Amino acid sequence: MKAARIHRHGDPGVLVYEDAPDPVIRPDQILVRVRACALNHLDLWVRAGIPGMSIPMPHILGSDIAGEVAQTGALCERVQAGWRVALSPGLSCRQCDQCVAGNDNLCRRYTLFGSGVDGGYAELVAAPEYSAIRIPDHLPFEEAAAAPLVFLTAWHMLMARARLQPGEDVLVLSASSGVGSAAIQIAKMFQCRVIATAGNDQKLRKARELGADFVIDHYRENIASEVKKITEKRGVDVVVEHVGAATWQRSLESLAAAGRLVTCGATTGYEAALDLRYLFSKQWSLLGSFMGTMGELRQVLQFVFRGQLKPVIDKVYPLSEIRAAHERLEKKEQFGKLVVIP
Predict the structure, then answer these.
(1) Which domains does the chain have, with CATH numbers?
(2) Element (H, E) at 279
(3) Which end of the chain is more exposed for a tag (fewer CB within 10 A), N or C?
(4) What does pTM read for this prediction?
(5) What is the pLDDT of residues 252-307, one digit of tens each?
(6) CA-to-CA distance for 257 and 223, rounded, in angstroms?
(7) What letter does residue 273 receive in the DSSP assignment?
């Protein structure tokens, strides 16, 4: 098969489009012919190298995968060859206390395609049967690949961690990101008032098209000051934060009393300061969030399948142009998801 692999960590130049051995599936696995794979910031981090994390080389990146089932293992009973499927990006042991309690994203062996195991930058991928979710015939593979990780992440942040209530005020950082574009749609589905930030006029316009009620240019405007103007000094109930050091302080300043800040990432840096006096006097909640459960993924994908939530695709590349896709994501030129087609 053809695959885009890394043989060492580094810049986009380490991605090599080449011949690779076909995966050999175990009895409890399926073989999926990849029709589309979406990019995530995780791909950039694994490619560059994550301190303390060692992966066997060569390695195939790509967490968000959609395709057709080409083969099923002897122990597979549910999935059938020929099915159109999306794969759950997250993988767990399915046996520990957290997994059997339904909290599989808290499993100590939790990992993702393209991180702990080979991913979707290839024509074929081996996957556990439980990870396959059948997708409707009307849903293009590109959209099916662009949905799972970001909609699961945004759903878990808003619904499971922040306990979003209908009609609340929500600030979404970086609307042009996959998580940002998903969070706007989910919050609007619950009749919330959404304030979104982005880095230029074109991205701000697209954020409004997604449903944002107000937009803020986070390069030219003070996020917290604008939020206070919009909310008449009250602040927002929920902040969806995943940018990190560059926006952390403004995100805190945007919170209303008893507001909840939920974060799933730190793309601009992980060192953040906190004045504890504000934390306890304003009764804020600071919440960490990572991925989500398999149950939550199936729940949020039903809204995607019905067309109530829609993956936002910025650009589709052939897999042979994977370096260009990585460069676009690294330069933050995209609005929504970048997808590669083997």
Answers:
(1) 2-147+311-341 (3.90.180.10), 151-288 (3.40.50.720)
(2) helix 276-281
(3) N
(4) 0.96
(5) 999 999 999 999 988 888 888 999 999 999 999 999 999 999 999 999 999 999 99
(6) 17
(7) -
